[in-house]
What we know:
Blueprint: H1 2-25, H2 27-54, H3 67-108, H4 113-140
Helix pairs in contact: 1-2, 3-4
Amino acid sequence: MIGSMLWALPAAAAVFFATTAALRRAPARGFRRLLAVNALVVGGAFALAALLLLGIVEPAQAQAATAEEASSSWAAFLGAGIAVAGSTIGAAIAVAYTGAAALAAVSEKPEMFGRSLVIVGLAEGIAIYGLVIAIVLIGRA
């Protein structure tokens, strides 16, 4: 586990520096390329998830386990990943809209700060619900 993270760290740093350099040179074109690469990665992830769910591709096994245990554990991890990803994307969208509205309301009426903070906090709670579901799913695997 640590060895794979040590290999991934320089690759992530290289991608970060290449992305910042591309965005500094031509922001509009670089942003479009960045969106295209992200769409390609997300499409690949969805394709892999579909292949795994349809049973066309079998997940790699790190240990020798029975087929029944292996099939249930990878499904739980996949479900946990989908729960966390979906809830965080939903929370990000909710916080974006409620945060912008809260800033507008507070700028006009400063006494609305407490109420707007509660509303933004409720929107952020969506991500916590996804994390709880992921913990429950992984705990059953």
